[in-house]
């Protein structure tokens, strides 16, 4: 399986470029997060997205009501059952997002070199000269010369549907702006972003708390995407809030870095968060264009070294309306993979795009091709060096399992785990083969009832590159006292064979605990 992997330093054979991409059960090691919305909420479309490679479904609460998202989630559950594909649930908060409110719903035409007033008075109708906004403090936050960007949903960057403004003067609570480009705004809500300005609103708003404590609790969300994370304290505050909501104390929190403030405090945020989402749409407005890639590379490297999932957004915007990405977008996806991304997040492309299934499929194919030239040897050495010596017990086992798997050209690594930590550590070293994480449920009690844990841990690994979970029978312990954990190993091997990853005569590396000892063993399979 690994003979097909090239290094970027090697000459790429023309034959390998002309070879058609081969379909597989695991389309790519890099995961795909799909945002479900108007164009991607039917059982049929969601099922096709899951088959195409989507492993995390994102529900964006910056728009839409709870009933709408609940209907979509019920369709997702039906699709998961019919396709037998696991899928994690991500709740994306609205956060302190500024919005222009257009109650008339009529398109608004804005002409370049004319002026428009931004007012906090939402009772006034939106016109070409006046745009009501949902924030009273804008006039105190901006000054003459500041840049403001307005676009629908997620920023498309398309100059006919989004507009750049320059602050001309501040009059009481109103802000008078010069329009820099002609555009037509259509719909009821448009996001407003002020470049490099602090907005004095809480990161977790009251509306966010209401959504989490109702919809989130009801559906046991796996991941909370905390929009506009600016400080480590934002993560601590959100974690404290989740800890009081029953099962949600297991929910992972991913910090969404969207502005200069979050970038400035990135190191502290990374320490607190379970993962990072690089919101390149907003970052591309706050940062000069020539600096965005620098932050992406530096931040992805830091996430990789800490073994925390890193998710990149805004990669194939043009596929919102087109069947194929641009050449630049295809290259951007590949570079995100080579930079170390765990997952690619699709926003408008699947939320309201015309080709949600094709987008997931295309991105998956690009990721799979990029993975073939990922320099795993160099990455492995960097990771080991960064960990330093003496290594912890778990780090030593994880790195040894990956090294052994590469040396014997194993087709897969099977890891038995109850918390998921061991499997994530193995994935941190980016093996070239899939890591099948066998999550063994644990029996626990809250003194009122007994329940099994494990489902959360299995689904949460669906956003980690190279990690493919399966939930084992709870009667099989993750820590075997006798070393005879053969029945659950057979289930894992059968799963690998059914998915086409493991074939007769392949070698497989198995990582498990035997009593107090951790063991890495190499199996050579028979017919």
From TrEMBL:
Keyword list, A-Z: ATP-binding, Glycolysis, Kinase, Magnesium, Metal-binding, Nucleotide-binding, Pyruvate, Transferase
PANTHER family: PYRUVATE KINASE
Domain Pyruvate kinase barrel: from-to ranges: 30-360
Name used for this protein in its record: Pyruvate kinase
All residue ranges annotated as the Pyruvate kinase C-terminal domain in the record: 395-514
NCBIfam families given in the database record: pyruv_kin
Entry keyword annotation includes ATP-binding: yes
EC number: 2.7.1.40
UniProt cross-references to InterPro entries, sorted A to Z: Pyr_Knase (IPR001697), Pyrv/PenolPyrv_kinase-like_dom (IPR015813), Pyrv_kinase-like_dom_sf (IPR040442), Pyrv_Knase-like_insert_dom_sf (IPR011037), Pyrv_Knase_brl (IPR015793), Pyrv_Knase_C (IPR015795), Pyrv_Knase_C_sf (IPR036918), Pyrv_Knase_insert_dom_sf (IPR015806)
Organism of this sequence: Gossypium barbadense
Catalysed reaction equations from the record: pyruvate + ATP = phosphoenolpyruvate + ADP + H(+)
Recorded metabolic or biological pathway in which this protein acts: Carbohydrate degradation; glycolysis; pyruvate from D-glyceraldehyde 3-phosphate: step 5/5
MF-aspect GO terms: ATP binding; kinase activity; magnesium ion binding; potassium ion binding; pyruvate kinase activity
């Amino acid at each position: 399986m690994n003979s097909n992997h090239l290094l970027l330093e090697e000459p790429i054979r023309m034959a390998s470029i002309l070879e058609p991409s081969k379909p597989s059960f695991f389309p790519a090691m890099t995961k795909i997060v799909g945002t479900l919305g108007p164009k991607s909420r039917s059982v049929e479309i969601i099922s096709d997205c899951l088959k195409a490679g989507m492993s995390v479904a994102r529900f964006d609460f910056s728009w839409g009501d709870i009933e709408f998202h609940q209907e979509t989630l019920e369709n997702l559950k039906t699709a998961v059952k019919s396709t037998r594909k696991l899928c994690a649930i991500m709740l994306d908060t609205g956060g302190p997002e500024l919005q222009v409110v257009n109650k008339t719903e009529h398109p608004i035409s804005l002409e370049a070199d004319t002026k428009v007033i931004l007012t906090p008075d939402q009772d006034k109708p939106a016109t070409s000269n006046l745009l009501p906004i949902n924030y009273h403090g804008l006039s105190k936050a901006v000054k003459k010369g500041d840049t403001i960007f307005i676009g629908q949903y997620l920023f498309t960057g398309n100059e006919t549907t989004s507009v750049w403004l320059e602050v001309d003067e501040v009059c009481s609570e109103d802000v008078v702006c010069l329009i820099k480009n002609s555009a037509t705004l259509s719909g009821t809500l448009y996001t407003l972003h002020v470049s490099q300005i602090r907005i004095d609103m809480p990161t977790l708003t009251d509306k966010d708390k209401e959504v989490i404590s109702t919809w989130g609790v009801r559906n046991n969300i796996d991941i909370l995407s905390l929009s506009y994370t600016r400080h480590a304290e934002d993560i601590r505050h959100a974690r404290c809030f989740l800890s009081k909501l029953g099962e949600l104390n297991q929910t992972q929190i991913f910090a969404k870095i969207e502005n200069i403030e979050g970038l400035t405090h990135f190191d502290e945020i990374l320490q607190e968060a379970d993962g990072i989402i690089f919101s390149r749409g907003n970052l591309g407005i706050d940062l000069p264009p020539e600096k965005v890639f620098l932050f992406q590379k530096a931040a992805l490297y830091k996430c990789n070294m800490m073994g925390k999932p890193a998710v990149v957004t805004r990669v194939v915007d043009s596929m919102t309306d087109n069947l194929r990405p641009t050449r630049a977008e295809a290259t951007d996806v590949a570079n995100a993979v080579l930079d170390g991304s765990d997952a690619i997040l699709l926003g408008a492309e699947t939320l309201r795009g015309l080709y949600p299934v094709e987008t997931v499929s295309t991105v998956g194919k690009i990721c799979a091709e990029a993975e073939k030239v990922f320099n795993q040897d160099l990455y492995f050495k960097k990771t080991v060096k960064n960990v330093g010596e003496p290594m912890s017990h778990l780090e030593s086992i994880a790195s040894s399992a990956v090294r052994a798997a590469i040396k014997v050209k194993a087709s897969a690594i099977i890891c038995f785990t109850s918390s998921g930590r061991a499997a994530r550590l193995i994935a941190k070293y980016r093996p070239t083969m899939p890591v099948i994480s066998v999550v063994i449920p644990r029996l626990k009690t809250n003194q009122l009832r007994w329940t099994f844990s494990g489902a959360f841990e299995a689904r949460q690994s669906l956003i980690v590159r190279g990690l493919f979970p399966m939930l084992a029978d709870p009667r099989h312990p993750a820590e075997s006292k006798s070393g005879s954990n053969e029945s659950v190993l057979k289930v894992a091997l059968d799963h690998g064979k059914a998915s086409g990853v493991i074939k007769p005569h392949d070698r497989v590396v198995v990582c498990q605990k035997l009593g107090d000892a951790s063991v890495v063993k190499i199996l050579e399979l028979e017919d």
